[in-house]
Specification:
single chain; 749 residues; alpha/beta; Endonuclease, Chain A; 5 domains; five-stranded parallel β-sheet; 26 helices; 29 strands; disordered N terminus
């Protein structure tokens, strides 16, 4: 017996599907615009799974035999085509109520190969109109080369390496400019993954009528592409020809790609958006700053924001301000965009726009230290005064006249705090006290570092970008780092303690935000974790003075504390490191003794700032950031008639007198864990054979390269004894109670 099917004329697909579900109809129209037009005929497609045959029939025929499978099919024409001369196309005969469409044929080809020199990845992606890719790392030059050599309409690239600065290190102003132009034209978009680590390599390359989806180990680099080098990579290629957009393979891969991209941010971001606004003569400078910092500096609004902020500070913290004046109003010459930025950022301090271009600042709220993480401070070079915003008022932190008795009392309190380190029973008492004194001297000098930077820039010009080194205090737990910062805040304010900033929230963006206040009060961050060093500190240290400083913006110094030493490399030249080695016992006696120092008011900074202004007019520039500060303290000792302690570093910075590596090495030599010998032209250091390589690092990593040393197992050969010997001799005063044997002294004579 022949089976019968029902055929419906063409109608809207949505209505048709609903009808079929309700009426168990098993045929739908086929949408095929390529069928020829034939008068009084319709083309029918038999949608039985085993068949799929199409044939022409006369309009009006109610029953037809399928020429392929011989089934008898009912033709139920309910609606004529709108144009009688047009051809109607139907799909019919499917099994059951399931609605299906016949897909165009897709040719699917799978292959794999090795990518190496002479057999490159480029041949597979060249010629693509649209490329979406996920790679671990890439090279900006290779991206440009690819875009220049191939007619790609659009390229999106996700880079999964979290250390984006590796990609940045390959950038130059000309490369950035070319990449941004491609980005702004819509041809190129680069994405980076700040939190999630992608090691995947995926390439989705779409051509006119095909797509290649490539997976494997090849990055978008010269070695990954097989352009050069000895690196081999393996790739798998799925090639789809035809209507690939309907393929599950393609749709799945696109879904994967979008998952990766959803975890990224756009690499150029605000910088790319603002690129066209950069003045041509400043373009190179702005690009260079962005490469290093990731921030956009040099736009017209940036300069305006800095100038308006400084204008606010100069007005609010002016000595000419009436003590009874509660509000300061200014009309700065700045764009509405810049003014809105300022009022948005400082809304919590009461800053607002009253009318067009008219800014209102409530003095008491702006100078209330309780609403800030550290107080406002300003150094007025012309009037030779330091101002502090405290409890809504502008107070002066510079004494008008010297008083020897008060100075003597202030120095006595200062010395007693430093000597309290003896409660920790340090192995090297002289070193412990000198380290604390050096740290305190640096921090109380730091409000003047913005002016120091101005002088430095005037002397060296733009060729020497580096500013005053950032202070880093490090050492184990319970060694007094936090207490030292707390005591410094008491000296600077003369009022009460300002809690240091929590190292847990330390970040580049946080530092940038806080420095925008333009307070010269030092920004002190306590207890940075190891991950903060890796993720944030490097960027902050490299850019804080070098790239972000301008003379129009008051800039605070940074003070950091942590349990670890600064990582070796470029940061070390930008950081002044002081090791605080003493460990305070957790006894009631030591805690009570320390607490005494935080209850005593000390006017030292008031006298120090006056002496600093006087010495700054006398002394020339020095690379020692505390050079003038040392002279100021020396002047105070002279005025008071007080004897300077042996441990007070007033002649040279601590690092010029003390080198932690040489001290540790000398200690090892005295303790005989390192044996010294010499031949005709070398000094030989031989460490105990039980030392592991990582145990040797504290003793040898800091040996200067100029000594021309080489390593052989646990033996180190110093080829320049003439330089090595005085370096070791400088360590003699710092090893405490250890007695240096005559034999060792003769060796280093």
């Amino acid at each position: 017996m022949s089976r019968r099917h029902t055929i419906l004329p063409q109608q809207s697909r949505e209505t048709e599907i609903d009808d079929m579900k309700n009426k168990e109809i098993i045929a739908i129209p086929k949408n095929n615009k390529n069928d020829p037009i034939m008068e009084n005929t319709s083309t029918l497609v038999h949608k039985k799974l085993e068949c799929g045959h199409s044939q022409e029939i006369l309009i009006g025929v109610t029953e037809v035999k399928c020429q392929e499978c011989s089934e008898i099919v009912d033709v139920n024409i309910q609606n004529e085509p709108e144009d009688a001369n047009s051809k109607s196309t139907f799909s019919w005969g499917s099994i059951g109520p399931q609605i299906t469409e016949k897909k165009s044929e897709i040719i699917r080809t799978f292959s794999s190969e090795i990518v190496k020199v002479g057999k490159t990845l480029t041949k597979h992606i060249a010629g693509a109109k649209n490329i979406r890719a996920v790679v671990y790392v890439s090279n900006p030059k290779e991206i440009l080369n690819f875009l220049d050599q191939h007619n790609v309409d659009k390229m999106e690239l996700v880079m999964g390496h979290q250390r984006v600065h590796d990609f940045r290190s390959e950038l130059t102003p000309d490369i950035v400019e070319k990449l941004v132009k491609h980005r702004n034209s819509g041809r190129l978009t680069l994405y980076v993954s700040p939190k999630v680590h992608f090691h995947s390599k995926i390439y989705i390359c779409e051509f006119d009528n095909s797509v290649k989806m490539i997976n494997g180990s090849a990055n978008l680099t010269k070695t990954g592409l097989g352009v050069k080098g000895t690196q081999w990579n393996h790739i798998w290629i799925l090639d789809l020809k035809g209507d690939y957009t309907l393929s599950d393979d393609y749709l799945n891969e696109i879904e994967h790609y979008e998952t990766y991209r959803s975890k990224t941010t756009e690499f150029f971001g605000d910088f790319g958006d603002a690129f066209e606004q950069i003045e041509p003569e400043k373009k190179i400078e702005v690009i260079e700053n962005w490469i290093v910092s990731g921030d956009v500096y040099g736009l017209p609004e940036d300069a305006q924001i800095r100038k308006v902020t400084r204008l606010i500070i100069d007005e609010v913290m002016s000595p000419d301000l009436d003590a009874e004046q509660t509000v300061v109003s200014i009309i700065p010459n700045a764009s509405n965009k810049a003014l809105k930025h300022i009022t948005d950022n400082y809304a919590s301090f009461g800053v607002s726009i009253e009318s067009e271009g008219h800014i209102s600042i409530p003095v008491s709220k702006y100078l209330d230290h309780k609403v800030r993480q550290f107080p406002m401070m300003r150094v007025d070079i012309e009037k030779e005064l330091v101002y502090l915003g405290w409890n809504g008022k502008n107070i002066i932190r510079t004494i008008s006249e010297f008083h020897s008795e008060e100075i003597n009392d202030s120095l006595s309190k200062f010395e007693k705090f430093i000597e309290s380190v003896e409660f920790a029973e340090p192995e090297f008492p002289l070193l412990a006290k000198t380290s604390v004194a050096e740290s305190l001297l640096y921090i109380i000098s730091s409000p003047f570092h913005h002016e120091y930077m101005k002088e430095r820039r005037e002397i060296f010009g733009i060729t020497e970008e580096r500013g005053p080194r950032i202070l880093h205090l490090y050492g184990g737990t319970s060694n007094g780092k936090s207490k030292l910062l707390t005591y410094c805040s008491l000296l600077l304010t003369g009022k009460e303690i300002v809690t240091p900033l929590d190292g847990d929230i330390f970040s580049d963006s946080k530092v940038v935000g806080l420095r925008s206040w333009q307070s010269v009060y030092p920004m002190m961050w306590d207890d940075l974790t190891n991950d903060k060093w890796a993720a944030q500190a490097e960027k902050v240290i490299k850019t804080h003075w070098d790239k972000r400083w301008t003379k129009e913006e008051y800039c605070p110094q940074l003070v950091l504390t942590s349990n670890r030493q600064c990582p070796r490399g470029p940061l070390q030249t930008r950081v002044k490191e002081i090791h605080l080695s003493a460990t305070y016992p957790r006894t009631s006696e030591s805690r009570v003794e320390l607490a005494k120092h935080f209850k005593v008011k000390n006017k030292l900074f008031e006298y120090f700032s006056k002496a600093y202004f006087e010495q700054s007019k006398i002394l020339d520039y020095s690379d020692d950031e505390s050079y003038i500060g040392r002279a100021a303290i020396k002047q105070l000792y002279s005025i008071s008639g007080r004897k300077k302690p042996k441990w007070m570093p007033l002649e040279r910075p601590l690092e010029d007198e003390y080198n932690p590596t040489s001290v540790r090495l000398l200690k090892a030599i005295v303790d005989k864990s390192c044996i010294v010998s010499k031949n005709t032209d070398e000094i030989i250091l031989e460490f105990d054979e039980n030392f592991q390589h990582w145990e040797l690092r504290p003793y040898v990593d800091g040996i200067p390269n100029e000594f021309e040393w080489r390593k052989q197992g646990n033996r180190y050969f110093i080829r320049r004894p003439d330089k090595f010997k005085p370096w070791i001799r400088d360590a003699y005063p710092w090893i405490g109670k250890r007695k240096i044997p005559r034999k060792i002294k003769r060796t280093f004579r």
